[in-house]
Each structure stands twice: as structure tokens, then as C-alpha cells.
Design goal:
By secondary structure, the protein is α/β, with parallel strands linked by helices. It is globular, with a radius of gyration of 20 Å. It has two domains: 4-127 and 305-322, ATPase, nucleotide binding domain (Nucleotidyltransferase, domain 5); 135-301, Nucleotidyltransferase, domain 5 (2-Layer Sandwich), CATH 3.30.420.40. 42% of the residues lie in helices and 18% in strands. The chain has nine helices and ten strands. It has helices at residues 44-66, 85-102, 111-117, 167-177, 184-192, 215-231, 235-266, 281-294, 310-322, and strands spanning 4-9, 15-21, 24-31, 75-81, 106-110, 135-140, 145-152, 155-161, 270-274, 297-299.
Length: 339
């Protein structure tokens, strides 16, 4: 009997559903939420309401595109955390109802582990370019910046993480003060490609070990704008591309310096990147450059699997199903979860 997993992702502002059969992706459907653009960030109450509107049509479309009947599902996997509690509740409640109605098991998935396991999504039987164990994964998103030693699909160890803000948050908040809208990360990336990365110098944190810090960088960026705007009110408009390029260069340098140190100290040369910020072209270029300079074998996910998506949840659910690890019906979501 084939193992057919339905994955449900609702941790933040993307409602997503995907179907994986025997490790092969059959469908992956995601609905975003434009309502947050007017507020410059995700509004939790609006996010949960939008999930309620989106989840039934998204799941129905995922099953339809997979070319299966819902009766063929073996299990339902859902994101249990971390994330916004209201958003997680929508996905959790729907997963419970569907699992009960179909008399199939339910599998809870750690959102962070799912991002790492996005590298194991196979889009065809011939797709066999997955990482070998152990490997290091740099997980970077709006809420997380971590270096993870991945010993197996079920055994992951955080060796370094941010002690304050995440890299994606730094991009979004610096973009906001420049008036670039939300989400700011993709806009910063686009403008950075037009600017000079050496135009401005921003503070780099001094944090021991493999940990990260981005709060000082945000403060340095803000103070630079404040000081320059006093003498030139049009400073941001005139230098927007250079500001974005300089900001992106510093963030990428901070990320790669710690990852480089971890790879050297741990003797690991197989390195991956995951999370929303892994779509950043500057970070992707840095990974390719490090592959050439240090002999790394790098794994960079397709853009579709960088942001929050249900394919990664279904993939994580697939491995937990094979291990017979299921979730009780009284499970509740967690806003904060560590790997």
C-alpha cells in the first residue's frame, strides 16, 4: 500500500496544503494573505480569520491536483508550532476533523524541522539530489536564524542561533523604515542588485561561538538614516539601492562567517540553507562562492520550498509515519518550539 500524506501549513500568513505519496510530491498549493500589506506586518487576528477562509479550498485543490481521492490518504500531517497561536489553531483543528472523519492517524510537525527537510522533497522518482548525513543547515527566516547539525531526518541539533532578532526580521524592519513596504526582504534583495554593497558600513555584532545577533545591526542602520537625513531630507530616496546592497552584504557576511566557522570546527563540508531568507540572491551567491573556495557540497532549495509551504510539512510527516510516531487528538499547538 502506498503511503500518502496530506500536509497542512498554517503557522503564519500562508495557508498551504500538499500531498506526498511514497516520498514523491504530487501537489503543493499555497494561498497568501494580502490583507497585511496595509499594516506593515502580519496582524495575528486577521491572519487566523484568513486561514479559516482559505483552508478548505486550499486542501481541496491540493487533493484535486494530486489526482487522488481523499479516501486514499494514509495520514494527515500538520504544523503544530512554532508560529502564531491563532493561525496554528486553524490548521490543527482542521487536521483533527479531517483525520477523524477519514479514520486515519494525525502527525504533528515541528515547523523548523520541516524547513530543513524541504531538502528531501522529491518532485519525481529521478530526483535524488538530497543531502547526505551529517550535514549543516543554515535556517534563516523572519523569525529564526539557526545553524543546525542534521544527523538524520529525525535527529537534529542546534549548534548556533540568534540571541535576539532574526536575519529576516532585520531585512523587514530596515525596509520598513525606508518605506519599502511589507514584506521588505524581497524588495531589499531586488534593490540590492542595483546598488553598491560597499557604499555604507554598518555595525557587526561580536557574539561568541556560533550564535547570531542582529539587533545591533538594525540600530546601526537606523542611526545612519537618522544622521544622514538631518543634512539631506532626500537621503533615503537618493541612496535606496546602495543602502539595500550594503545592508544585504552585512547580513550575508554575518550569516556566512558563523556558518564557515561551524563547518570548519565540526569538519563538515556538506552544507544546506533553508527558510524564507534562503531565497535571497546574495545569500545564494555566497553559498556557491563558499562551495568553490572551501570545497563544500551545497544544497539550495527551489524557490517554491523556501517560504512556508505544506510540501515540507508533508515530507516531515512522511518520515514520522515511517517511524510510527503519531499525534493524539488532544494535541494543542505551541507558539514557541525548539528543534
Amino acid at each position: 500500500m502506498p503511503v500518502t500524506i496530506l500536509g497542512i501549513e498554517s503557522s503564519c500568513d500562508d495557508t498551504s496544503a500538499a500531498v506526498i505519496r511514497d516520498g514523491i510530491l504530487l501537489s503543493n498549493v499555497t494561498a497568501g494573505q494580502a490583507v497585511h500589506e496595509a499594516y506593515g506586518g502580519v496582524v495575528p487576528e486577521l491572519a487566523s480569520r484568513a486561514h479559516q477562509q482559505n483552508i478548505i479550498p486550499v486542501v481541496s485543490e491540493a487533493v484535486k491536483r494530486a489526482g487522488i481521492n481523499k479516501s486514499e490518504l494514509t495520514a494527515v500531517a500538520f504544523t503544530r508550532g512554532p508560529g502564531l497561536t491563532g493561525s496554528l489553531l486553524v490548521g490543527t483543528s482542521f487536521a483533527k476533523g479531517l483525520a477523524m472523519s477519514l479514520h486515519i492517524p494525525m502527525i504533528d510537525v515541528n515547523h523548523l524541522q520541516a524547513h530543513v527537510l524541504a531538502h528531501f522533497i522529491r518532485q519525481s522518482p529521478e530526483d535524488n539530489d538530497q543531502p547526505s548525513f551529517p550535514f549543516l543547515c543554515l535556517l534563516v527566516s523572519g523569525g529564526n536564524s539557526q545553524i543546525i547539525r542534521v544527523n538524520s531526518c529525525r535527529n537534529m541539533e542546534v549548534v548556533g542561533q540568534t540571541i535576539d532578532d532574526a536575519a529576516g526580521e532585520a531585512f523587514d524592519k530596515c525596509a520598513k523604515v525606508m518605506g519599502l513596504g511589507y514584506p521588505g526582504g524581497p524588495v531589499v534583495n531586488r534593490l540590492a542588485n542595483e546598488g553598491n554593497p560597499a557604499a555604507f558600513a554598518f555595525a557587526k555584532p561580536r557574539v561568541g561561538g556560533y550564535d547570531y545577533s542582529f539587533s545591533g545591526l538594525k540600530t546601526s542602520f537606523l542611526y545612519t538614516l537618522r544622521d544622514r537625513l538631518q543634512s539631506d531630507p532626500d537621503f533615503i530616496a537618493k541612496n535606496r539601492a546602495d543602502l539595500c546592497a550594503s545592508l544585504q552584504a552585512v547580513v550575508v557576511d554575518i550569516l556566512m562567517s558563523k556558518l564557515r566557522k561551524a563547518a570548519k570546527d565540526l569538519g563538515i563540508k556538506e552544507v544546506a540553507v533553508a527558510g524564507g531568507v534562503s531565497a535571497n540572491s546574495g545569500l545564494r551567491d555566497a553559498f556557491l562562492a563558499h562551495a568553490r573556495l572551501y570545497g563544500w557540497k551545497v544544497h539550495i532549495p527551489p524557490f517554491a520550498f523556501t517560504t512556508d509551504n505544506a510540501a515540507m510539512v508533508a515530507m516531515a510527516g512522511h518520515y514520522k509515519y515511517l517511524d510510527g510516531e503519531f499525534c493524539p487528538m488532544d494535541a494543542v499547538p505551541f507558539a514557541r518550539v525548539v528543534i
